[in-house]
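ingest -> validate -> predict -> emit
validate: passed (alphabet ok, no gaps, 241 aa)
predict: started
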Amino acid sequence: MTVTNETGSTQDDAIVGLQSGAPYGTVYATEHQTRGRGRRGRGWLTTPGGLLFSVITRADAASPGAPGRLTIAAVVGAARAIQACTGASASIKWPNDLVFGQAKAGGVLVETFGDAAVIGVGLNAASGAGMADGQATTALAALATRAFDRNELLAACVVLILECLAAEGDARDAVHAEWVRRSMLLGLQVEVSGTLGVRGVVEGFDPDGTLRLRDAGGNLRQISSGEVSLRVLTDAQPHRP
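emit:
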């Protein structure tokens, strides 16, 4: 593990490490990022007392749907770690945000490189509520039902993310089912921004992370995470299968 007080981006550090021959499972962590980034090139806000790290892992990027499956596994692994260490149960805002109510507490970024992937995780562990890119944020410390240590949480995140990534068969199905169960969007009406520009009700998610949306005309639309962002249009509670 490589730990720094400050770096540009743990994701970039891990990519350099991968290119230099760092083995699978190598972790890069920092206290502060100056160029952190999220999905679709968005900036990632670094807050004091946050948990910021990236891990190099094995992947088959040539396999159909690989990035989506990796994202599912990473987000579920992080959610399991949060619950194990803090007692707080996170919901998932498709495809990669960890939220409590409507407030974001963290997110995951997956980038693939041939037979490898770099998975970045950012969690707002200790700072108070605020706003980032127009979205309300919250801290795990404010939600925890018991005291937790950031090092313990980091270790749990790495172990459980790698465990979810390695899951096969029924275990992989269980990871996907948990990702669906934790969704804050299932059964809600949302607006799809970007190239599609449609509204509809979220009906479910495929194993590769594709979102299934029933639009106003009754048509089933399949939406990949790389194309859009979503805005919830109703305060109704999501349906739980």
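Confidence is low (pLDDT under 50) at residues 236-241.
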